[in-house]
């Protein structure tokens, strides 16, 4: 075990490992690219849906079922299925990652909206605010902590799952995991896994730091895997 | 992308055994996860300094990609079912631990004090007062963990196990969509049925929540 960790250490710090087109630097950039694009696309789809469901109070059924459906959907199967349908392209990876991220964001956005005190909403309306003003100036700011929680959760899941891009012969940190698996090279697999975990944790900390910076006066919500 | 229905009817018994093996892996993992996380959650609930450490640790475990977890277990438990189950169990811990801690936190302090005042010992209070009252939140965690495990079993395909996940590699290697579609549909069905059963179990175990709402 000690030998393994020593080898892992030298694998991670060796200079040549970090440069070149199959170096850690390049793989890291690819992994970040897949993860960030997928999360941004998912947010662009899921935020309006979550806000709409929360604001109108209609379609809560959809939001709740979407989350359990999203959790039950086997990502590997989805990647392979889209791969067989579309051929060798980035579509399988992005579609699977977006499908993975959308439910967490929708349900947390919806949860944040329902957590807004109805009296606050009524007071805003009583002061003559229009529907969109209530939504953007009252409900949205109050729901933001939970919305951010949903985004953080989605990003962690996406970063961990972007590993799968390598299965359909793309890059990212999953390359080390799958190549190591094929070559029975445990150090390489371990290195890939550690790097993915570090990226996920660092991004999560960065988002929570940003959240604290932006909304200092509001209590932080604990992450919910809704 | 068309479905080859004759393939399905020809492989009925294979599909049944894959489904059962899939279910067995997921359910064993959730049961083991419960066995580990219940005592840890009590510990995290009562000993404050441990709380952040335990919850933080389970969060970090959650960020490691599942494929890597399975592979990293290979030197320990080899290409076996044990590897699948341990890997899945690790994933259930984050949900089960957090929900059980939250559930125990949600039990009103006054209720616990009342139990204490009536002379109920701490262990007995835990089993007859705290756990039953925390049950709805704990069960929410069990449902998430079960659905998540059922969906994750497929990843163990890369280490030669994986239940219905074997259909994905089969379809991928032969460029044949039918097994992949069947695998995805069966996994979804399995998850939905398991979830519905857990909802029914929860209603049976917490009769008081029904009368309160009515």
UniProtKB/TrEMBL annotation, chain A:
<keyword id="KW-0813">Transport</keyword>
<keyword id="KW-1133">Transmembrane helix</keyword>
<dbReference type="InterPro" id="IPR000515">
    <property type="entry name" value="MetI-like"/>
</dbReference>
<feature type="transmembrane region" description="Helical">
    <location>
        <begin position="153"/>
        <end position="174"/>
    </location>
</feature>
<dbReference type="GO" id="GO:0005886">
    <property type="term" value="C:plasma membrane"/>
</dbReference>
<feature type="transmembrane region" description="Helical">
    <location>
        <begin position="186"/>
        <end position="207"/>
    </location>
</feature>
<dbReference type="InterPro" id="IPR051204">
    <property type="entry name" value="ABC_transp_perm/SBD"/>
</dbReference>
<feature type="transmembrane region" description="Helical">
    <location>
        <begin position="91"/>
        <end position="111"/>
    </location>
</feature>
<protein>
    <submittedName>
        <fullName>ABC transporter permease</fullName>
    </submittedName>
</protein>
<keyword id="KW-0812">Transmembrane</keyword>
<dbReference type="GO" id="GO:0031460">
    <property type="term" value="P:glycine betaine transport"/>
</dbReference>
<feature type="domain" description="ABC transmembrane type-1">
    <location>
        <begin position="28"/>
        <end position="207"/>
    </location>
</feature>
<keyword id="KW-0472">Membrane</keyword>
<dbReference type="InterPro" id="IPR035906">
    <property type="entry name" value="MetI-like_sf"/>
</dbReference>
<comment type="similarity">
    <text>Belongs to the binding-protein-dependent transport system permease family.</text>
</comment>
<feature type="transmembrane region" description="Helical">
    <location>
        <begin position="32"/>
        <end position="53"/>
    </location>
</feature>
<dbReference type="Pfam" id="PF00528">
    <property type="entry name" value="BPD_transp_1"/>
</dbReference>
<dbReference type="GO" id="GO:0055085">
    <property type="term" value="P:transmembrane transport"/>
</dbReference>
<feature type="transmembrane region" description="Helical">
    <location>
        <begin position="60"/>
        <end position="85"/>
    </location>
</feature>
From TrEMBL, chain B:
<feature type="transmembrane region" description="Helical">
    <location>
        <begin position="20"/>
        <end position="41"/>
    </location>
</feature>
<keyword id="KW-0472">Membrane</keyword>
<dbReference type="GO" id="GO:0031460">
    <property type="term" value="P:glycine betaine transport"/>
</dbReference>
<feature type="transmembrane region" description="Helical">
    <location>
        <begin position="180"/>
        <end position="205"/>
    </location>
</feature>
<protein>
    <submittedName>
        <fullName>ABC transporter permease</fullName>
    </submittedName>
</protein>
<dbReference type="InterPro" id="IPR000515">
    <property type="entry name" value="MetI-like"/>
</dbReference>
<feature type="domain" description="ABC transmembrane type-1">
    <location>
        <begin position="19"/>
        <end position="198"/>
    </location>
</feature>
<feature type="transmembrane region" description="Helical">
    <location>
        <begin position="53"/>
        <end position="73"/>
    </location>
</feature>
<dbReference type="InterPro" id="IPR051204">
    <property type="entry name" value="ABC_transp_perm/SBD"/>
</dbReference>
<keyword id="KW-1133">Transmembrane helix</keyword>
<dbReference type="Pfam" id="PF00528">
    <property type="entry name" value="BPD_transp_1"/>
</dbReference>
<comment type="similarity">
    <text>Belongs to the binding-protein-dependent transport system permease family.</text>
</comment>
<keyword id="KW-0812">Transmembrane</keyword>
<dbReference type="GO" id="GO:0005886">
    <property type="term" value="C:plasma membrane"/>
</dbReference>
<dbReference type="GO" id="GO:0055085">
    <property type="term" value="P:transmembrane transport"/>
</dbReference>
<feature type="transmembrane region" description="Helical">
    <location>
        <begin position="133"/>
        <end position="160"/>
    </location>
</feature>
<feature type="transmembrane region" description="Helical">
    <location>
        <begin position="79"/>
        <end position="97"/>
    </location>
</feature>
<dbReference type="InterPro" id="IPR035906">
    <property type="entry name" value="MetI-like_sf"/>
</dbReference>
<keyword id="KW-0813">Transport</keyword>
